[in-house]
Amino acid sequence: MTYSGRVTVGGPADVHELKDLMITKVAVGPMENNAYLLRCRATDEQLLIDAANDAGTLLGMIGDDGVASVVTTHRHGDHWQALAEVVAATGARTYAGRYDAEGVPVPTDVLVDDGDVIRVGQVELTARRLVGHTPGSIALVYDDPHGHPHAFTGDCLFPGGVGNTHKDPEAFASLLHDVESKIFDVLPDETWVYPGHGNDTTLGAERPHLPEWRARGW
Question: From which residue to which does any coiled coil extend (predicted)?
Fold first, then answer.
C-alpha cells in the first residue's frame, strides 16, 4: 500500500517502506500527537521518535524486538507522556536536545547538540537544533542514499507554517531563521517532512509560502 502519512488516534499505523529503513507512523493522545518508529532493515534495531502518549499503543507497535532508543523532539508535555513507561518496559536509551532536556521529566541519557549523529542500526540521523518553539527543539534528518531526504521536525515545521511561537516576534524570527537555514536551504524540494501533529508534507510544497509566513509573523 502507498504511504500517505494520514493517521488518526485509534486508527491503524501507516508504514513508509524505504530500502534501508522502515518508518511507522501512529497518532496518539488527546492532542493527536504523531509518534514515529524507525527500524533499520539490516539490523532490525529500532528507534522511537516521541513517546507522546498511550504507551500501550506504542509498545504494541514496537513489538517483541524492543526499541534501542527514544528521541524526544522537545520539552512540551504532550510529546513525552508515555516516555517513562516505554523506557521502563524496554530499557531504551533516551535522547533529547541539550537545551530542552531539563524540561523532560525522564532522565536523558544522551544530550543532543546541533549536527550530532544518532544511529539506528546502520542508519544515521543528523540532529538539527531549531530554536523558537522551545529553546532546544531538535529535528532529525535522514539523508537516504537511495532517494530523497526525510525530516522529522517535531513541532517546528508543519504543513502551512512553522511551529507556534506564541506571538513572540523574537521567537518567531529565530524559528523561521533556523528552519530556513538548516532545513530549507540545505535540503531539496523532494524532502519528506514528518511533523509532530497532523499530516506529512514536503519541502517543495511549503517552500513557496516562506515569504507569506515571514510577512504574517507566525
Answer: none
